[in-house]
């Protein structure tokens, strides 16, 4: 923890759709899981409010959130909810708020990562400082909540400049604190011949375009990740699998690290305003080069790191050419994997990123007269 600073008492609010546990449902869940683990390792007292079944949950039943229960597995979706789920989450957050108000003396600050508007309003309703991390492009319910807390102890941080700009246009200003990865867990690999794609298997991540790029280059590609849209998987991924493309499902971090680290190149193919792209940093931390679509915050993440190339989003031919070039360079010059990892550790290590966030949490947790927060320069 910060020298001379007493341990913080932090309530971390996670996204509610999926439990925080391995294999992670997505980059957001992985980032929050790492946050809780790191803050505790630094000696802070961390309570987690998250979906039932998450790691790190304590005994406080009011901080356990419901998870979607689909009648048919094929209906499961990252963009929709089963009937009644939204109401159940609303009710659960109301119960969590009431418990927070009753136990206000037990907490210094709320570290909010939820995509639900309720925790934003806790800075006003529970009279507690809240730091909300913006992990997505602007969402209308969150914008409405942000407008309600303009005079309370609230700070917004964004995972990229691109995300911060998008929210600023909508009237929400945020400091930029990019995500990081645990570079002690994401270790350098020896490389290989296959290409790789990892992430949520959903239309906006477009893994089918990664398969097309590999086919264009005559390469073999392995896909790993949770299916977030069953219809998309069946219609766009399954028909493309075969001799040149293989899907291995969701993997726990050690297995995912081995897969990515033993690959020639990683493809990242977002077709939406990608706020950050944690899979980019994970791949680069293993030394595996990355060919990616240039959209959202992607170019920020790879800036200054050798072994990464961006191309116009949706341009499969350019992606294939970039990936083939990176794979060939890596095979010809093995030290490029060493340089790629070193630069990634320097820019995106978990410890570096979370110490910055720790300072923000510590600052906003300090009591101030009349709940007015002074201007701060970082």
From TrEMBL:
Keywords: Glycosyltransferase, Transferase
Name of the protein in question: Glycosyltransferase
Glycosyltransferase subfamily 4-like N-terminal domain span: 26-185
InterPro entries from the UniProt entry: Glyco_trans_4-like_N
Highest taxon above the source species: Bacteria
An example Gene Ontology molecular-function term: glycosyltransferase activity
SUPFAM superfamilies in UniProt: UDP-Glycosyltransferase/glycogen phosphorylase
Top-level class of the enzyme under EC nomenclature: transferase
Provenance organism: Microbacterium algihabitans
Stored PANTHER family: BLL5217 PROTEIN (PTHR12526:SF595), GLYCOSYLTRANSFERASE (PTHR12526)
Pfam families xref list: Glyco_trans_1_4, Glyco_transf_4
The enzyme's E.C. designation: 2.4.-.-
Lineage: Bacteria, Bacillati, Actinomycetota, Actinomycetes, Micrococcales
């Amino acid at each position: 923890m910060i020298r001379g600073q007493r341990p913080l008492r932090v309530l971390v609010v996670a996204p509610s759709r999926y439990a925080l546990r391995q294999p992670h449902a997505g980059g957001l869940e992985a980032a929050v899981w790492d946050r809780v683990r790191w803050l505790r390792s630094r000696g802070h007292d961390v309570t987690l409010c998250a979906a039932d079944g998450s790691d790190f949950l304590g005994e406080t039943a009011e901080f356990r959130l419901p998870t979607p229960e689909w009648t048919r597995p094929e209906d499961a979706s990252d963009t929709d909810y089963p009937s009644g789920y939204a109401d159940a989450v609303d009710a659960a957050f109301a119960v969590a708020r009431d418990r927070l108000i009753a136990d206000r003396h037990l907490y210094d600050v709320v570290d909010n990562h939820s995509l639900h508007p309720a925790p934003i309003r806790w800075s006003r309703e529970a009279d507690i400082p809240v730091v909300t991390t913006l992990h997505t492009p602007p969402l209308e319910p969150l914008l409405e909540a942000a407008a309600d807390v303009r005079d309370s102890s609230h700070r917004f941080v964004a995972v990229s400049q691109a995300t911060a700009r998008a929210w600023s246009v909508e009237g929400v200003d945020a400091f930029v604190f990019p995500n990081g990865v645990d570079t002690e867990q994401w270790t350098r690999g020896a490389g290989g011949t296959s290409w790789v794609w990892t992430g949520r298997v959903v239309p906006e991540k477009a893994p089918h375009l990664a398969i097309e790029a590999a086919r264009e280059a005559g390469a073999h590609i392995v896909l790993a990740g949770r299916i977030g849209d069953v219809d998309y998987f069946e219609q766009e991924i399954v028909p493309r699998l075969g001799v040149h493309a293989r899907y291995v499902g969701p993997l726990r971090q050690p297995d995912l690290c081995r897969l990515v680290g033993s690959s020639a190149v990683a493809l990242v193919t977002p077709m939406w305003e990608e706020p950050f792209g944690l899979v980019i940093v994970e791949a680069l931390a293993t030394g595996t080069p990355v060919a990616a679509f240039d959209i959202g915050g992607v170019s920020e993440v790879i800036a200054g790191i050798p072994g990464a190339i961006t191309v116009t989003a949706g341009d499969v031919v350019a992606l294939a050419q970039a990936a083939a070039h990176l794979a060939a360079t890596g095979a010809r010059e093995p030290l490029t994997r060493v340089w790629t990892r070193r630069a990634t550790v320097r820019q995106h290590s978990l410890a570096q990123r979370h110490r910055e966030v720790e300072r923000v949490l510590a600052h906003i947790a300090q009591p101030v007269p009349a709940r007015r927060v002074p201007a701060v320069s970082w």
